[in-house]
Amino acid sequence: MTTPALLLGHPLASQENARYALLTMSRIRKFEEAVEDLFGRGMMHGTMHLSIGQEASPVGVCMALNLEDQITSTHRGHGHCIAKGADPVRMVAELLGKENGYCGGRGGSMHIADVETGNLGANGIVGGGIPIAVGAALSSQLMKKGTVVISFFGDGAMNEGAFHEAANLASIWKLPVVFICENNGYGMSSSTELAFNLEKLSDRGLGYGIPGITLDGNDVSAVYEATEAAVKRAKSGEGPTLLEFVTYRWKGHSRSDKNLYRTKEEIDEWKTKDPILHFEHVVVERGLLTEADIAEQHRLATEQVIAAVNEAMKGKPADPAGLLDAVFKKVSA
Amino acid sequence: MTTPALLLGHPLASQENARYALLTMSRIRKFEEAVEDLFGRGMMHGTMHLSIGQEASPVGVCMALNLEDQITSTHRGHGHCIAKGADPVRMVAELLGKENGYCGGRGGSMHIADVETGNLGANGIVGGGIPIAVGAALSSQLMKKGTVVISFFGDGAMNEGAFHEAANLASIWKLPVVFICENNGYGMSSSTELAFNLEKLSDRGLGYGIPGITLDGNDVSAVYEATEAAVKRAKSGEGPTLLEFVTYRWKGHSRSDKNLYRTKEEIDEWKTKDPILHFEHVVVERGLLTEADIAEQHRLATEQVIAAVNEAMKGKPADPAGLLDAVFKKVSA
Amino acid sequence: MSDRKLTMSEALREAMSIALDERPEVFILGEDIGIYGGAFGVTGDLYHRYGKERIRDTPISELGIVGTAVGAALSGMRPIVEIQFSDFTAQAMDQIVNQAAKIHFMVGGGLHVPLVLRTASGSGTGAAAQHSQSLEGWFANVPGLKVVIPSSPYEAKGLLLSAIDDPNPVIFLEHKLLYKVAGTEDVPEGAYRIPLGVSRVVREGKDLTVVATGIMVTRVLAAAAELDKEGINITLIDPRTISPLDMEPVYASLAKTGRLMVVQEAPEHGGFINEVIARVVTGPSLGHLIAPVTRLAGMNVPIPYAPQLEKAAVPQVEDIIKQAREVVVNWR
Amino acid sequence: MSDRKLTMSEALREAMSIALDERPEVFILGEDIGIYGGAFGVTGDLYHRYGKERIRDTPISELGIVGTAVGAALSGMRPIVEIQFSDFTAQAMDQIVNQAAKIHFMVGGGLHVPLVLRTASGSGTGAAAQHSQSLEGWFANVPGLKVVIPSSPYEAKGLLLSAIDDPNPVIFLEHKLLYKVAGTEDVPEGAYRIPLGVSRVVREGKDLTVVATGIMVTRVLAAAAELDKEGINITLIDPRTISPLDMEPVYASLAKTGRLMVVQEAPEHGGFINEVIARVVTGPSLGHLIAPVTRLAGMNVPIPYAPQLEKAAVPQVEDIIKQAREVVVNWR
Ligand SMILES: Cc1ncc(C[n+]2csc(CCOP(=O)(O)OP(=O)(O)O)c2C)c(N)n1
Ligand SMILES: Cc1ncc(C[n+]2csc(CCOP(=O)(O)OP(=O)(O)O)c2C)c(N)n1
Ligand SMILES: [Mg+2]
Ligand SMILES: [Mg+2]
């Protein structure tokens, strides 16, 4: 896996980057379609939160990062994980409860972390990762790492006290963190109209002295540019930015969701704003990629995901014998 | 005890009201001086947070309320309590750990509540009362009481998650609550400059769609007017307002405070902005009260406080025998 | 009605519906309890029947929600709060413990907090460590809270109605594996109340007294049916409320069986069930014991994700059979 | 140095100072720990010696502070968090329990959280119900946390240094009445470590084994001195860490005394000390008991304000004397 940002000047400036963006968005989508299928066939356990329709955000954001830069993710974290460079084999293996899964089968979809690619972990607690991101940013500042930390969270998470306390600390200490609100319109069934008395959720930054920007979260290029600027600001010691990416999840909140709180029309309407299709149009229009290039990226993505699933299936089921030993890190002598 | 708001058109409009405001501010100050003295002489136990220098806020606010309107208070709550109409005898008795204290000796200074005057209680937890005020406002809305709830808190409390979650709920449900931040410049030793990246703390309302106003918290008349407007807004169903009253505490945070985090000059400077003296100047200047009137209010205040202390001293010490029975309210048959 | 084998979700919903009908001051608040019908479907159609004022959807703000409920309870209402997973009570612990539990006491009795906090507890759905805890021990050690753990639909309905009647804060812990399972007893259609603080003797047997709550009642029952075949007969006692805890039936049973086994899903170390052991060995039953007390509890690990790990982490029917058999056989 | 009778505050400060010197990744964060020197004066002059980056004053945001510490611990630092009163851990329970305690396990071992959370625990200062709780039972029942309760300045220093070394989250509960009391043992000036998970036999006596932590160690010692005069001799065992809990010295002592008394300040119902009882009666000591186990704990009430009430609510020296005497005399 190459480190995306190293490839990049501007996201649309090179074929290589355009291909990378498309391939990665496609891999996220195919990955989630594949695990949804496995889940539907009863081969996976637990719950699952799909980010289909939201792929531009993780990809655009992570393309603006270096490998050393860190992220914290959410319950809806497959995209963040893949975009930051995780190994899909170990992801699927985790979902299948295998020993070679990222968490050795102990965490599942909501707890995948990948230290090597700077992913400090998904989180099953809404808002739970936000103060953690701020803490990692404090480490960066104290240790003069020169890195940034991205805190991904949903619109719903902004109403948790954790957001509030973390945002204030980041602002007063000018920490190198970027708050990224993936506003998909709903926190489970709770619409942003009902949960907020605000036009733009990015205005919530005003209460902390944090600049806030709202933009189209389905435009990978816009996402990249806004992130790059916020990252630069963070790394130069000017403190956090709050980016609100407006997007939509096509699937239900989780498997048990009957979608009673929104209309089919609304969902269909948003499908026309597919971030992947949107990006394809742009790159073709600008003559950056051909239709064949595009098809090739999707083919590659499919191939990679199928290979990952097949490989993951071969893993050994996690063994209960190791549980007690896994609770504490051993005290080194 | 008369219900102050019933007397009122405008706080300065009548001699009666001006006298009431002065008497009440003076009573708060004398009360706190008296308990500080008792404390210093080892007759009181525990801790104590004095609001000397901040008397305009409780008095101005409570004059804009009816008896049925409710308040939630803080660890620094003697003023709120007295201004809302509490009986100083039972207050002192509580501080002395007497059976006839407000809490039967079980709560002490940080837990005095007075249901009859609509005081839902002081709170030892910074920010703890804010969601409770919002809940009381929800009761008011659901039961169509036509009342407002005042949530008093300090600047420091605004950085607690409790403030955040409560503010958002109040805003989206347009609850009849007024948030009153008594900004005395410090949360214990933590200055607002260090704890916030904001010019005005009332700007924090922006993140919730709550209008915020900052004003001189040592001007009882300004406090009254702002509160009255916010109360009217709340009662007419338009939702919460955030009022920031800028003030200062003359004494240390609590008894153990050595005041290392601020200068003597700063304290002295603020003493020149004494809310009581300020009000005296205004009423004399406008010819509303004479110097004799003023002296009379202070005399009355002193008399009442001394009488309260003497009366409270006579109370029976709280008896441990009742403790177990006091934990749960009895289930009525 | 002769055949009313409801699920626990249905029984809970029925209880709430009755309370909503009986008392105008009852209302429900929580995340996704409206149109969505609740994360576990417990509120179901109540939103359509009672409207959005009384079945109040909230933003994702557990601390705010519980605090709001405390304030509402202080001033005339009777809120029922639903917290989707008991793990998220961690967000609201200040309002639960420092406010709701203590206000009546701290202020000298002038205020009280008639609040019910319902929440889904326990493991078994593959939701992993942040969605599967059994936290009853936290609440049990907080004076001022009542703590209820229903073990069947019938019990759930009667206990919830009593919890709503109670003028004090009640934590109501519903095991998520029980929600969708139909009970074996009929659930009467109208109102009935099961008092808080009265243990239930679920079944009687001569050899061993087992104390368990919630899902463990189901598992012990299954184990007991197996052990019956071996001639080992179990008395099962379900305290139903762990605060207050009614020990009388346990003492009475131990006078007959002389053997005690306690079972819980929560991690063993520092778990609530130790209270039962402590009361027995410091109390009137001590002289009746003819075998060492035995306890079976969850492993001291966060709940893992993979099904084989998750099962291993908490007592299963086979574990109960094995341990129960051992104590009876070894101490004939 | 021959006479180094420090207070617990001083000993804790010394431990932190050594850790700050030893490891650049150690830093302290909390409310009023800077110029103010800490709500109980524990950080004292560290701010002046190490500067505001490493002795980091925070706004009033317990959840944010602990979460920030978790994130910092995950990425190379070793934060020590001070929470002014243990009651306010309620604000931060999500980060303590759902994050810090579980991350290492949940993510499969790739991350760990070397975090120490120091906080003031217990009653006795008239601060009432929201500032006086003993909450060790909550943390003990959470797999993934270590829980330390020092009982003297000497112990505090050695245990805190080990807690800081530990790669896992450690909850360090300091009884507020101990802060200003000088210990009876000298506290060595340099670094020394007392391993976590090793109980200490504080004194030995033939008649009764008492298990207690924190301030109760002091009170049991005072009681033991009185009882010595009556010819009743007590062994006192201080586990020092309740998670992990080292029971071996308790078993060894019971083999000699045959009598067990457990003492805690926390409310009796569902309190941690039950774990000790459970281990004893389900473990190797059962056969050695010649008297019923006896427990002495806080009343099941929130801590009240008035001194006479506050004293009555938790075990005092006289209560310990009385109950210890009773069990020894009645079971000669
Ligand atoms: C503290 C907490 N409260 C509630 C939940 C249950 N829950 C899981 S995801 C979710 C919705 C989150 O909404 P949002 O933050 O907008 O993220 P999205 O799911 O839309 O990506 C809820 C309520 C939780 N996991 N944690
Ligand atoms: C949750 C919580 N954190 C910390 C404290 C300790 N404490 C008591 S008062 C106080 C300062 C509060 O500052 P502010 O809200 O500005 O009120 P003020 O004391 O200035 O009136 C602190 C830190 C507490 N009681 N509760
Ligand atoms: Mg969302
Ligand atoms: Mg202040």
Mean pLDDT of chain C comes to 97
SSE pattern of chain A, N- to C-terminal:
HHEHHHEHEEEHEHEHHH
Give me the Rg of chain A, rounded. Answer: 19 Å
Rough outline of chain A: globular
CATH T-level fold name of chain A: Rossmann fold
Strand content of chain A: 5-15%
Structural class of chain A: alpha/beta
**Small molecules bound in the structure, each named once:** thiamine diphosphate, magnesium ion
Number of domains of chain A: 1
The CATH class of the largest domain in chain C is identified as Alpha Beta
Overall geometric form of chain C: globular
- Count of helical regions of chain A: 11
- For the record, what is the CATH homologous superfamily label of chain A? Thiamin diphosphate (ThDP)-binding fold, Pyr/PP domains
Radius of gyration of chain C: 20 Å
Largest sheet of chain C: 7 strands, mixed
Side-by-side strand order of the widest sheet of chain C:
2-1-3-4-6-5-10
In helices, the fraction of residues of chain C equals: 25-40%
Q: Helix segment count of chain C?
A: 12
Word description of this protein:
Chains C, D: Pfam families: Transket_pyr, Transketolase_C. Chains C, D: Keywords: Oxidoreductase, Thiamine pyrophosphate. Chains C, D: Residues 6-181 form the Transketolase-like pyrimidine-binding domain. A 5-stranded parallel beta sheet of chain A has the order 1-2-3-7-6, sandwiched between helices. Chain A has helices at residues 15-40, 56-63, 78-84, 88-95, 129-142, 161-172, 192-195, 220-235, 264-271, 275-285, 291-313; strands at residues 70-72, 149-154, 177-183, 186-187, 190-191, 212-216, 241-246. Chain A has 333 residues and is α/β, with parallel strands linked by helices. The longest helix of chain A has 26 residues, at 15-40. Chain A has one domain (15-326): Thiamin diphosphate (ThDP)-binding fold, Pyr/PP domains (Rossmann fold), CATH 3.40.50.970. In chain A, helix 1 (15-40) packs antiparallel against helix 10, helix 4 (88-95) packs across helix 11 (291-313) and helix 5 (129-142) packs parallel to helix 6 (161-172). In chain A, helix 6 links the parallel strand 2 (149-154) and strand 3 (177-183). In chain C, helix 10 (274-282) links the parallel strand 11 and strand 12. In chain C, the strands form 2 sheets. Chain C has a 7-stranded mixed beta sheet, sandwiched between helices. The termini of chain C are far apart. By secondary structure, chain C is an alpha/beta fold. Chain C folds into 2 domains: 8-178, Rossmann fold (3-Layer(aba) Sandwich); 200-330, Rossmann fold, CATH 3.40.50.920. Chain C has helices spanning 8-22, 46-54, 62-74, 93-100, 103-106, 136-140, 153-165, 215-229, 248-257, 274-282, 307-313, 317-330; strands at residues 26-30, 55-57, 78-83, 116-121, 146-148, 170-175, 200-203, 208-211, 234-238, 241-243, 260-267, 294-298. Chain C is globular. The longest helix of chain C is centred in the first third of the chain and has 15 residues, at 8-22. In chain C, helix 1 runs parallel beside helix 7, helix 3 (62-74) runs parallel beside helix 4 (93-100) and helix 8 crosses helix 12 (317-330). The model of chain C has no long low-confidence stretch (mean pLDDT 97). The chains are: A alpha/beta (333), C alpha/beta (332). Chains in contact: A-B, A-C, A-D, B-C, B-D, C-D. Chains C and D meet through helix 4, helix 6 and helix 10 of C and helix 4, helix 6 and helix 10 of D.
